[in-house]
Every structure is written in C-alpha cells, then in structure tokens.
Amino acid sequence: MLTDKELEELVQDLHSPDISLRVAALKDLWRYPTRDVRVLPYLEALLNDNTLCVVMLPYQYGEICWLAANALAVERKALNIQEPIRLMGVVRPLDTQEFAAACVAAGVDTKGGLPGVLNTLAILRNMGKLPLYDLELKFNAFALAPTSSP
C-alpha cells in the first residue's frame, strides 16, 4: 500500500507530459504492483492513451495503453480482482527489424534517433501500416500474455 505522498508522486508520473516518466512508472508497476486499489483508476484512464513509445528493451515500440493494460492486469491480480482487460485495435509491439520492414513496405523514410522513430511510427499508424491486434489479459492466465484475435 502506498502512502498518500507516494500515490501523489505516482499519479504525477502517470500524467506527465514527459512520455519517459509515464513509461517508467508503468514498467515499474508491471514489475512491482503496489497492491493499492487507489492506483486502479489512474491505470484504467491510460487504457485510452495511444501515445507511441518504447515499451520494452531491447527496443520494442508500441503504445502507452499496451503498457497500462499489462500494469493494470498485474495490479488487479495482486488485489485478487478477476476482471479481464480487453483493448481492441492496439498496435502490436514491433522490434527494430519489424519497424524497418514496415517502413520499407510503406515507402516511408525514417529520421534517426528515438524522436525520429516515434514520428515515423505515428506516420505509419496514420497510414494504417502498423499491425493491430485485440489484447486480452486474463487474471487466471499462468502468464499475463496477450492473446490475439484475427
């Protein structure tokens, strides 16, 4: 259980305009759930955040909502809440080779550095050239792994 001060700091990070703070907070919650029910509404709100980011290393690119869904699933499991999480049409995380292949297939050039990659991902998403899938995370799964729907 978080102290009020810890919760306040976490909420600030989850709402930060700095994407790296949101990503870091979600990754931490995914690894180390707080077991604090007060965190749930803040994670649920991020299920609508389709900001592109690095979701894991080695470099895998995806959306904040994907990270939020995984963090929420772990929090719910820690609190013994059995409600599944479903997100429709989420960008499937891509590694650097998949990203490069998507750029070539779409005829899109990319600029260097992380800002260039994220900008190019946004262009590809707007063109409908990123792979989307339906994410479902269930409480009773052995591992909280996404399942795809065609």
Q: Please tally the β strands and state the result.
A: 5
Mean pLDDT comes to 92
The succession of helices and strands, N to C, reads: HHHEEHEEHHE
Report the radius of gyration as a whole number of Å.
16 Å
Structural class, from helix and strand content? alpha+beta
Shape, principal axes of CA atoms: globular
Characterize the biggest β-sheet.
3 strands, antiparallel
Total number of helices: 6
Helicity level, as a percent range? 40-55%
> Which spans have pLDDT < 50 for at least 5 consecutive residues?
141-150
Strand content: 15-25%
Strand sequence of the main sheet, in spatial order?
A: 1-2-4
Distance between the termini: 39 Å
Features:
globular; 150 residues; single chain; two-stranded antiparallel ribbon
Describe the 3D structure:
The chain has 150 residues and is of the alpha+beta class. Helices cover 47% and strands 16% of the residues. It has 6 helices and 5 strands, in the order αααββαββααβ. Helix 2 (19-31) packs parallel to helix 4 (64-78) and helix 5 (96-106) packs across helix 6. The longest helix has 15 residues, at 64-78. The chain is globular.
List the helices and strands and how they pair.
Layout: H1 4-14, H2 19-31, H3 40-45, E1 52-56, E2 60-63, H4 64-78, E3 85-91, E4 94-95, H5 96-106, H6 113-127, E5 132-137
Antiparallel strand pairs: 1-2, 2-4, 3-5
Helix pairs in contact: 2-4, 5-6
Short description:
By secondary structure, the protein is an alpha+beta fold.
